[in-house]
Amino acid sequence: MSPPDASQPLDGYAEIRLVDPFEIHVGPALAKGEKAARAYALRARDEHCNMRGIVHGGMLMTLADMMLGQALWDATDSAACVTMNMQVQFLKSARAGDVIEVAPRIVRRTRSLVFMAGDFTVGGQTVMTVQSVWKLLGQE
Amino acid sequence: MTPPTALPEGAENISTGGFNRFAGPFYRLADEGEVRRFAFVVLDKHMNAAGSVHGGVLMTFADIAMSRATRLATGAQSVSTVAFSCDFMAAGHLGELIEIRVRIARRTRKFVFLAAEIASGGRSLMQASGVWRMG
């Protein structure tokens, strides 16, 4: 199977505005759907890969931080928040040209903490699963 | 303590290609006994909008350092991250020299278990652990 044409738009997805310099550096990122149940995507490029042509673990974890953060912003009207913890399992390789998708979930939310999870997929197959705790700033 | 901003003499640039170079540059420092050390200086591109080092940068730095430590310890040509866990304890800032110290906790025929701490000027920023597979 030939890699998807990077110039083709993805069904239903539109580019989102990124504000963090490092996210702009690795972006663009895409989103589709309603705010409470949005899916996010990124099309992997050569510079996201290691020398073996596989999307770098650090890039996938960067994506995890980006997209869980975006979903948390959706759920909180862009509350100030920071990542406290992240646990990641790498199940399968992703390659340049692959579209990596996730629909992050909020598993539990307290006054100051949000427990999140996400399964990152390529073509419906999970490449990485993530669990992450976030802190809402200014909420002791 | 004022955080250091310059790399020590003899630091070896390990960001020669791919995402490592795109996200870096990251450097290897001299070992301290069994501890493998790596460092980078925070650039504008590493930041988030809140003025801290982006979490993705610290995780990338840890992944690169722990992967390299696995290869150094085993001689394996290629290794892959199976699982990675980290806690963000404090924020890194623009211009700071950030260092990671990596230790091997256990090594089996196929897997290596590692732990690492990231700090800047004696201030702990992150603790990380993970499992790497050889080959």
The figure for the number of domains of chain A is: 1
Oligomeric description of these chains: heterodimer
Biggest β-sheet of chain B: count, sense, barrel? 7 strands, antiparallel
Which pair of chains has the greatest number of interface residues, and how are they split between the two chains? A-B, 36 and 36 residues
Distance between the termini of chain B: 42 Å
**Main β-sheet description of chain A:** 8 strands, antiparallel
Can you identify the CATH superfamily of chain A? Hotdog Thioesterase
Order of helices and strands of chain A: EHEEHEEEEE
Number of strands of chain A: 8
How many E strands of chain B?
7
Low-pLDDT residue intervals, each spanning 5 or more residues of chain B: none
Helix content of chain A: 10-25%
Question: What order do the SSEs of chain B take from the amino end to the carboxyl end, as H and E?
Answer: EHEEHEEEE
Name given to the CATH homologous superfamily of chain B:
Hotdog Thioesterase
Shape of chain B: globular
Reading off the top of the CATH hierarchy, the class of chain B is best stated as Alpha Beta
User: At the third CATH level, what is the topology name of chain B?
Assistant: Thiol Ester Dehydrase, Chain A
Which key phrases capture this entry?
heterodimer, A: 140 residues, Thiol Ester Dehydrase, Chain A, 8-stranded antiparallel β-sheet, B: 135 residues, 7 strands, 19% helix, globular
Topology, element by element:
The complex is a heterodimer of chains A (140) and B (135).
Chain A: E1 14-15, H1 21-26, E2 30-32, E3 39-43, H2 57-76, E4 81-90, E5 99-102, E6 105-109, E7 113-122, E8 125-136
Chain B: E1 12-13, H1 18-23, E2 27-32, E3 35-41, H2 55-74, E4 79-88, E5 97-107, E6 111-120, E7 123-134
Antiparallel strand pairs in B: 1-2, 2-3, 3-5, 4-7, 5-6, 6-7
